[in-house]
Specification:
Blueprint lengths: L16 E6 L3 H17 L2 E9 H6 L6 E3 L6 E3 L2 H23 L6 E8 L1 H8 L5 E5 L14 H8 L3 E5 L10 E3 L9 H7 L6 E3 L5 H8 L6 E5 H10 L3 H4 L4 E4 L1
Parallel strand pairs: 1-2, 1-6, 2-5, 6-7, 8-9, 8-10, 10-11
Antiparallel strand pairs: 3-4, 7-11
Helix pairs in contact: 1-3, 4-5
Length: 253
């Protein structure tokens, strides 16, 4: 669902929006901080999207459904009413997190809640000129041989650049590492869009998954930029590589 509104006849500028996919996790909140920085520096609109997952709601309707407490480890029945209440709490926390993230910043922003499948809702919202920012943790568990559902759709099918943010390390400006033997140079506009987060460009030779992981093992700043065909090739070699790379990953079409 997309409730974006603009004046009639107004042309949207390229890369008009920064989209942040939110949930209640610390990973998505770290990604939100990066999204705010990008939106502020580019004078772009920030759209924070929270999707109420209909698959989760549907699963709660089964009489045998149960949930396990993350802290207590206790199992208890899972009801549609409990899921609705949990989603309402998450929406409230996400709303507060957005307000805190943009406080004191000159950032056009809005919070959008939709109900559906996470990947479908995010893909329906995203346009070719947007930047889609995701929290990294949680994606690696879905990054299997078949590339899973939500992660596969968002990383490999989004019509725009996707930034997979890693919250495990403090944000430090560092080199934007490029690895694409077929197209080592990105358009200047693409690099400029990422400039607020990274400093300088480092061209890498073509590497296999094992060599790339070793090369980046001690990286503490900057990011890795991959074209989607390159990412797909690396994932075939090592389905869990994405989760072990210790810096943010930028995926471009």
């Amino acid at each position: 669902m997309n409730d974006d509104t603009h004046e009639q006849g107004e042309a949207l500028p390229e890369a008009a929006r920064v989209l942040a996919l939110l949930d209640a996790s610390r990973q998505s909140l770290a990604a939100l901080s990066a999204a705010v920085d990008l939106a502020a520096s580019r004078q772009a609109e920030l759209v924070a999207l929270f999707v109420e997952d209909i698959d989760l709601l549907a699963s709660a309707g089964f009489p045998f459904s149960r949930e396990v407490g993350a802290q207590s480890g206790l199992s208890r029945p899972l009801s549609p009413e409990a899921v609705e209440a949990s989603l309402a709490r998450q929406v409230k926390r996400a709303t507060q997190a957005l307000a805190e993230a943009v406080a004191g910043r000159q950032v056009r922003h809005r919070f959008q809640v939709s109900r559906g499948r996470v990947a479908s809702e995010a893909l329906a919202l995203a346009g070719p000129g947007d930047l889609l920012v995701l929290g990294k943790a949680g994606l690696s568990g879905q990054w299997g041989v078949r590339l899973g559902s939500t992660s596969r759709a968002l990383i490999l099918e989004a019509p725009c650049t996707v930034i997979i943010w890693d919250e495990r390390l403090p944000t430090h400006r560092g080199p934007l590492r490029l690895m694409s033997p077929a197209d080592p140079e990105l358009p200047a506009a693409s690099l400029a869009a990422l400039e607020p987060l990274f400093d300088g460009v480092e061209a890498l030779p073509a590497m296999d998954a094992t060599t790339l992981e070793r090369y980046l093992a001690r990286a503490r700043s900057g990011a890795l930029l991959l074209h989607r065909p390159e990412l797909a090739r690396l994932a075939e070699q090592d389905p869990q590589l994405l989760g072990r790379i210790p810096v943010p990953i930028i995926v471009v079409p």
